[in-house]
6-phosphogluconolactonase (Paraburkholderia silvatlantica), 385 residues
Amino acid sequence: MASVAATHAFAQSASTTAPAGGVYNLIVGTYTGGKSEGLYVYRFDTQTGEMQPVSVAKTVNPSFLVVSKDNRFVYAVNELPGDNGPASLRGDVSAFGFDAASGQLTFLNKVSAQGNDPCYLSLSPDGRYLFVANYSVAADPGGSFAVLPVQQDGRLGESVLTVHHEGGGPVKGRQDNAHVHSTVFSPDGRYLFTQDLGTDKLWTYRYTPDGSRGLVSPAEWRYTDVKSGSGPRHLIFGNDGRHAYLTSELAATVTVFAYHDGHMKLEQVEKLAEPGFKGTQGAAALHLSPDGKFLYVSNRGDANDISIFAVDGDSGKLKRVGRQSSLGKSPREFAIDPTGQWLIVGNQNSDTAYVFRRDQQTGLLEPNPKRVDIGSPVDFKFVAQ
């Protein structure tokens, strides 16, 4: 682990407000270079599922974004260099001010992600730091995560800590070196989990902003192993805080863990594709319904669908209840609106998004969704006005 000395930034105040008339802002992250120019803001009506365009902020490859707790700031990766770019080119993270009332984004500043291909962002529970996962197609510098201080005015400071992973896995061309794909805090904010597709590990760190152990330090057990060659990607915690759910991109599975005080215990592994499926796959995002009763998981490749699972309220285990085509190619990310009535999924390689109505009793997605044309849509975040 390589690092530089940590410095401190001050936390922002956080508050939430209810949307006016059931209308939210919806911010969409994209890949640019084709039909997209950057970040798009829509008004999303939770009564009808309709989306109305409001504004666009030009920025390069904002493929993942996160919103501050007070909704005043938006942070987006600039995913560079990509598959064909020079390894010497580092990616960035851009900060924007956000006026929720008008739906306008204002560029604040941009700092280096200290690695290649930044693909995931998370704010520390105290709002003082932004953590960025660098997937890194290139072996040099390899998969890493960086810690960026958040200033009171929403701007980002230069990285105060960079952690590189070492190792690889058995899948040639995909696991030749480390690939950090997400940085996720435990429900109590004491631990940081970094899912590494290249090393088949969920690395575990302690977060101690008081400086008692340094800002971030490896847990004594260091990591949780997953099946060799599975390629862990994204992790979320259940509403009860006692279970965690992991997508493994290469194996196209979702895994259930029992969780306690930084430790993960494997409970269940479910395949995403239907029995007998032939073709390529690529597990991507996973999200729970607001009530925590259903889990949705996207699968790309030739599958291009979303698996729907019911969540057992006691054991946290999953039972499949359905599967829904994304109606396009490469459903990388999706989101469920805060009311739980709608699920929107982006088809990255089809320049489309579809808004499905959710049956909140069965978890199923109703047919005849609303289509929205967006260039290479990837990420979606709902923000109250």
Remarks:
- Confidence is low (pLDDT under 50) at residues 1-18.
- Residues 85 and 138 are 9 Å apart (CA to CA).
- The radius of gyration is 19 Å.
- The domain at 20-384 is CATH 2.130.10.10 (Methylamine Dehydrogenase; Chain H).
